[in-house]
Amino acid sequence: SEEYLRELNPDAMLEVFAQDYNPQSYAICGSDMMIKGESLDNIRFGDSFTNDYFGEKTFDYMLANPPFGVEWKPQQNFIQKEHDEKGYGGRFGAGLPRINDGSFLFLQHMISKMKEQKEGGTRLSIVFNGSPLFTGAAGSGESDIRKWIIESDWLDAIVALPDQLFYNTGISTYLWIVTNRKEKKRRGRIQLIDATGFFLKMRKSLGNKRNEIGDGRDGKADHIGEITRLYGDFIEGEHVKIFDNSDFGYQRITVERPLRLNFTVNEERLEKVRESSQFVSLATSKKRKDTEKAEAEIAEGKKMQQSILNALGILSSGGVVKSRDEFTESMKKAFRDSGLNIPAPLFKAILMALSERDETAELCTDKNGAPEPDSELRDYENVSLREEIAGYMAREVLPHVPDAWVDGSKTKTGYEINFNRYFYKYTPPRPLEEIEAELKGIEKEIAGMLEEMV
Q1: In 3-state terms, what secondary structure has residue 229?
Q2: pLDDT reported for residue 369
Q3: Residue-wise pLDDT tens digits, 328-360
């Protein structure tokens, strides 16, 4: 990077800073600096998360190629504390990714070192695998970090690179370009570049590295120049798609349906009452050190259990009741007539044990008369930020389940970038005649092999 910048401007005043906790990477970098006769004062060894040598320093340009899918458990306490205590005043205010992949921590660390716009701003680039594009549902750490970056209008472009570029992994990688000094034409927009086909096959592979991106030297194709041109032109085409920031956002809505229950007292449902934890706990005792008192308490509990079952027996001839309010009043009367005072948690447990879901039953409502949601029928939908939730429900949900509604208190905004969807190319299936001919050829080949064996 330094050499390239000096080619562009030999008179540029460049200062290079770096930090790495990988001993081998640090040693290679230090050796390279010494060979060039440059100072190692700004090349530091250590963990950037827990021991940031450059503190509040900001930079014009930054580059990073962090490890893919590496857990950050060793630094968890330090990072969690900074997140909780400093919020956006620290590096990790936007959120914390799942513990097994710290990729987004590196990007947040770099963003914290961007210069303010009045000082010229900053451009940075970081290499990720595919996970940071879409991992994490709305409300998760990863989604919240994407949301923060995109809604701050810092994500400039993402370049999908060819696979098999690295020595230790052959997975697909993506170059994120992040800046707080976007050109006017790029503001509020994100450019996606598909550069997966811009590579040369190496004559000899190096570990998992079998491909390289041509730089135009030694007769090689200038893939770097072509990718740079696609980025700079900012024009949609075969390899470029341009979107508004909001195109990647969505609202995760919670779709509820009403709870409908029927109630009856029969042996099958009474068995559910006997098995419920609230009912079982009646005949247990915490007085383990005093055996006599414990036995007396258990005996009293068993007596209570039998009294409850006897009271419920009064309702056994009532058939199936499809109104919770009606059955609740019947239960209260049965217990009252039996001289039983049933605590609310136990009463609720018994009521649920005697119930069964029934689409033909009346709605179960709360004290305000509003329908209660059935957790087993709860569903979730992702609705684009560019669409009204009411319109989506009317088109996609209500025609199938007219009694559904959205619990707005649970709606969360998320962001994801499904890169492959935007560059998907349809491959038509092979003609049936061609497949049939191939199968017949295989059959003849197998028949010939069998004849030879005989």
Answers
A1: helix
A2: 93
A3: 999 999 999 999 999 999 999 999 999 999 999
CB 262 within 8 A of CB 361: yes
| Cβ atoms within 10 Å, residue 268 | 9
Percentage of the chain beyond pLDDT 70 is 99
Residues 6+ apart with CB under 8 A from 351: 263, 324, 327, 328, 331
Same domain, 187 and 73: yes
Shared domain check, 274 and 236:
no
What would the two tokens of residue 244 be?
Answer: 């508004």
pLDDT band, very low/low/confident/very high, at 1 (cuts 50, 70, 90): low
Calpha distance 269→257 (Å, rounded): 24
Please indicate, yes or no, whether residues 76 and 214 belong to a single structural domain of this protein.
yes
Q: Same domain for 95 and 243?
A: yes
pTM of the full structure: 0.84
Question: Per the domain annotation, does 365 fall within a domain?
Answer: no
- DSSP annotation of 100 reads T
Hey, which bits of 150-239 come out as E strands? 155-160, 174-179, 189-194, 200-206, 209-212
Are residues 87 and 158 both part of a single domain? yes
Which whole number is the average pLDDT over 110-117? Answer: 96
Please state the domain count of the chain. Answer: 2
Residue 233 within any structural domain of the chain: yes
- Structural domain that includes position 326: 260-357
Tell me, yes or no, whether 128 and 272 share the same domain.
Answer: no
Distance set, CA 367 to CA 40, 327, 393 (Å): 71, 16, 27
